[in-house]
Amino acid sequence: QICLSLVRLLFYLAHSPLGSIVLLDFQPRQFVMVDGNLKVTDLDDASTEELSCKEDNDCTLDFPTKSFPLKCSVVGKCEGINEKKNLFNAYRYFFTYLLPHSAPLALRPFLSDILNATGDLRYGINETLRAFEKVLHLYKSGLYLQKRTLHLKDYISLKGFRMVEGEDYKCWPSYSHLGCLLSVHSAEEAAAICNSQSQCQSFIVTQRRTWTGRPLALFQSSPTGLIPDANAVVYIKRSASSGERL
Length: 246
Prior knowledge:
GO terms for molecular function: non-membrane spanning protein tyrosine kinase activity. Keywords: Kinase, Signal, Transferase. One of its GO terms (cellular component) is extracellular region. It comes from Sula dactylatra (Masked booby). This protein is of the alpha+beta class. The protein folds into 2 domains: 1-144, Transferase(Phosphotransferase), domain 1 (Orthogonal Bundle), CATH 1.10.510; 152-242, Hepatocyte Growth Factor. Helix content is 28%, strand content 23%. The protein has 5 helices and 11 strands. The radius of gyration is 24 Å and the shape is elongated. The model has no long low-confidence stretch (mean pLDDT 90).
């Protein structure tokens, strides 16, 4: 969410009515999240000036660990230098820390491609935004899920009940510090996740939603502690659903 919001912001800066705007003091502390969107807190160091040049050799974009040769345009300006400076700063301050983590396994190759392409400045901001929007579409639609054996057949469903939320086993990247609360596309994906975790014996798809509209599923190590809830369904592993435990 943070990286996508940042890319949308940089897309606007690259195509602003004032021209391409560069953030000269590009640091994480210069941004805040407001209603799920990244905002710049300080525009004192923003500039529309692009580096003047006489030849391509005047247009090297230097960073502490990398340098990029750019072209000198016919009007004597280094082509795209403001856009590229913003994008590489996004890569080194945000993408490298956030993109490799917490995405479903099937989506990580797409994010790795974005990371590599922006790290080498092979993508401009237009291509980067398109790549992020593609990943978002795959994530929200569930198209990233591979056709595989149905996992829900390993569970019995108990309608009209939900589990008491409390401290249980932890997982990454949980939305709760008390237990294992993850974003899923469907009960089928939740069943696949539960099967992949040795501690998991039951789960419920809650009514809570993430910023993408995906529901949150709560995974627990025991199907005990059920309370009535007309709108809920508890899924319990058949191997854990003996009469004694229920």
